[in-house]
Each structure stands twice: as C-alpha cells, then as structure tokens.
UniProtKB/TrEMBL annotation, chain B:
Family assignment from sequence similarity: Belongs to the ABC transporter superfamily.
GO cellular component labels: plasma membrane
Enzyme Commission number, as recorded: 7.4.2.1
Listed PROSITE patterns: ABC_TRANSPORTER_1 (PS00211), ABC_TRANSPORTER_2 (PS50893)
InterPro entries membership: AAA+_ATPase, ABC_ATPase_HisP-typ, ABC_transporter-like_ATP-bd, ABC_transporter-like_CS, MetN_ABC_transporter-like, P-loop_NTPase
Protein name (Swiss-Prot/TrEMBL): ABC-type polar-amino-acid transporter
Domain ABC transporter per the UniProt entry, residue ranges: 15-249
UniProt keyword Cell membrane, yes or no: yes
Keywords: Amino-acid transport, ATP-binding, Cell membrane, Membrane, Nucleotide-binding, Transport
Membrane topology summary: Peripheral membrane protein
Amino acid sequence: MTVEPVDAAASRGPARGLFAGMPRRRRRRLSLGAQYTLFAAAVVVVALLADWPTLRENFAKQEVAEQLFPDIITVGLRNTAVYTAVGFGLGLAGGLVVALMRLSTAAPYRWLATAYIEVFRGLPLLLIFIFVAVGVPLAFPGTEIPGGAVGQAGLALGLAATAYIAETIRAGIEAVPRGQVEAARSLGMSQGRAMWTIILPQAFRIVIPPLTNQVVLLCKDSSLVLFLGITLEQRELTKFGRDLAGQKGNTTPIIVAGICYLIITIPLSLLARRLEARQRRGQR
Amino acid sequence: MTRTGEPAGADAGAIEISGLHKSFGANEVLRGIDFRVDAGEVVCVIGPSGSGKSTLLRCVNLLEEPSAGTVRVAGAEVTDPDVDIDAVRRRIGMVFQSFNLFPHLTALGNVAVAQRKVLRRGKRDAERIARENLERVGLADKVGAYPAQLSGGQQQRVAIARALAMGPEVMLFDEPTSALDPELVGDVLGVMRGLAEAGMTMLVVTHEMSFAREVADRVAFMDGGVIVEQGEAARMVTDPDHERTREFLSRVLDPAAARVQGGER
C-alpha cells in the first residue's frame, strides 16, 4: 500500500458518478456498506418468501432420513470409497508407467504414452464406463472383468485416471532440478536407480496436492457406476440416493447422499490446499 | 584396456585427456585439450566464465559426452563406448557449484544412499562410513539435519563427504565455493585443503586464487576452449607467461582496479 496523497483535490480527481467529490476512504466505506445492505436484504427476502414447511417436507424429512441409515453408510458410502480406491490405485500404477514411458528416450514409448493420454483425456468418462460394462462383454463374449462391479468400476475409473495422473507425475518429475540426476549419476547410480531412489521420491512430494485433488474427482466420478447395472449391495451413494428417492417419493435421500459425498470431498480438498500452502512455504 | 600398449597404471596419470573437443550444436566449447593430472596431484583450472573449464571437468566423468578425443581416469578409458560408465563414475567423486544434495534425505542419508544402492554396503556399514566422513568435514553434529536446515557451506561439506564415502580415486570440484556467502567459503576450502594434504588427486575449477596458490601443485589457465598455459601454482598466479593470463589475474585479484581500468578504456 502506498501512502495516499493528502491533497483532497488530487484524491477526488478520478471519481465519477454517485460518489463523485468524496474523499477516497469515505467512498470505499460507503461502497462496502451498500454491498452488505444488499446481501442482508436478499437474505430477508428469501427467508420470507420461501415455503419452509414444504421445503422441509421434501428435502429434509426426518422419517425418510432415518430410514436411510445405516445402509447409506455401510453400503453407499462404503462402495463409493471402494470404487474410488480401486480406481485411484489402478490410476496411480498406470499413471506412473505411462509417465515414465512419456519421458522415455525410446520414441515408440513416447508416442504410445502420448496417444493414450490424449485419447483418454478426450473421452467422456461415461463412454468409458459404457465401454467397460457393455463393449468389452460384447467384443469378447465369455470374458469377465475380474472383481465384478468393483472391477468394472475400478477399471473404468482407472483407465481415465491413468491419463490424468500420468501428466501430473510427468510434471512432477520434470520439476525436480537437473542437478539431482547429475549428482546421482556422478555417484555411480544408473539411470533407473537415480529415477527410483532420487527423482521419484521428490517428484511424488511435489504431486501429492494434485493427486489429492484427483481422488476428489474420482470420488465424484464413481457415481457413474449408476450406468453399470449393479446389484443392491453394489450401489454407491448416487445410485442409493436415487433409488430411495424414487421409492419414498421424497428428495431427502438425494440430499443425504450429497452430504455423504461432501464428508469425503471437503476434507480432502482442504487437505490438498494445506499441503499446497506448506509446499509453497517449504524448502527450496 | 591396454590398447596403447602400455600396462594400465604403470605410467598412467590419474587423469589423462588427449585431443578433447566438445561442441554444443555449432558452439565449440572445447577446442582440443591435452591435459594430465598425476596421482596425488592437486590441479586448479582457472579462466574467465565461458572458457570451458566446467565443461572440461564434466567431460572427465562423462556428464558431458565429448565430441572427440579420449579421457582416461585411473587407467579406464571413460570415452570407450563399451565402458561401464557407472562403474567408472564410482571411482570419481564430483562436487558441484550448487551442492545438489538430495533434499528428501538427511545429511546421513545423503552420504549413505549411494553406498547402499551402488556399492551394496549394508545399512550399518554405510552409516558408519557416512558418520566418519561427516566427521571428517566437521559436521558430526549435523548427521540428522535435512539440507534445507543447513547453511550453504555446511551443504557443500556434506556434498564433499557424500563423494568421499564412495572411496574415489579422483575428486572433481566444479567451482565449489562460487555459490557461497563469503564468510562460508573458508570452511569449505579448509576441508579441501585437508583432502589435498591427505594425498587425494584433485582437479578443481575455481576462482579462489589464494587457494590455487597455496594448495595446488599446478594451475592451468583456460580461455576460449583451450589451455593457454599451465605451470607450477605459485608462478602461474604471480608471474604467468601469457598476456591473457596476466590480464585475467589482474581482473580477478583486484576487481575494483579492473573496473576503473575498464572504465578508462
């Protein structure tokens, strides 16, 4: 902040319209006051006009909410977590392989990795789910993707996550200073040894925040399991909420399912932001 | 290995460089270097920036691939396409201007990691040797510290310990004190002086003329990708033959005077 000129005429100079002719500080205070007033007015209008009993009846009906438990946790939330974890696990393993291929000195590996990344980042995730659920059994009759619904959902999520995580890991590897490889090589480490022992541990530290965000995305995307055709025990949060909303003729299950997602995603987002902030403050 | 006809090691210097050229694209950085460092010798390479000193050093352990010429270190031909370069590099310690410590490892970890992964020493042996070397560079009390918690001078001394722990036959120093605050330079030079006195073969690229004069056996002056002249350290620093060397030394030894002179020209 620079010190503002004391000269009143100078500070009045550029002002136009409503606040013309006022000192700058007073103008700022007035503008802020106007914004608060508008906000308060909007809150009052919504509170007065809304039909609270109807809203409550439809969105937060206690009897309906009570019937959701414990299944929405033990089935819905649990399956969401399982699909996310399997998808992330496959995506992390695949992403590491594709990232290393992308950085390979052998050109065919680079082409293959680039093609994979471009294809799977360019496709709607829903299409990948349908491909895994419908396309694979059609193309190879009799083949089963191991693990049933978990396997199918994990595979679909993992195929897409591989592409995104590969790019993240590649960026992380490239962010490690060149001198690190040189130091490792000058100590007699091979290229692979230097990558594994020196570069990757540093790269992973760099990419933990974006990977955490990737988990949040996968958690939400696992809702596409809806389209797989699954049994009652395999339902995750979205399908669970939708089914019960239909059964009870009430929106409450969808709201509760939404809250369950937020229980996972908000802490993860906060964690990612904390890690990012710590990294910005951190060494180097 | 004996393609020159002489048994390796008999008359071989610790480092032998002949006909070394190195180009980066159209830019020829080294234009024919013939150079030799005997076992136990300490040689300083001086010269203006861009003269190819660091590139010369980096060609010795093949961090840069020479465009032409041969480099032999302790009897092994580094430039032989069939050489196991990782095996040769184990015998060559290198210290960088920017330290290049591994930030995710403690001082002890930095010194132990290559012993374990490259030399396959057990954890206890590697850590014992790491401690000995950290003690040797005066950092026995910083064993558990991460690089970010150390001063530049301390980091550089850990880097020296890290190279020493591999038991190298030759040590390369690439401007080891150029990134340090002036008050921290002395500690690092002290460690290097101790190494020299212990008989280590050292090739040092440096701007520290007092170190070159007092510690080095020989000084080589490089300019424009060639070694302009080389000779006994004290004479090279005080009374060199070539005009270019003299001009460089006058600028390095008395920067203020050089600036005034430069202004007058």
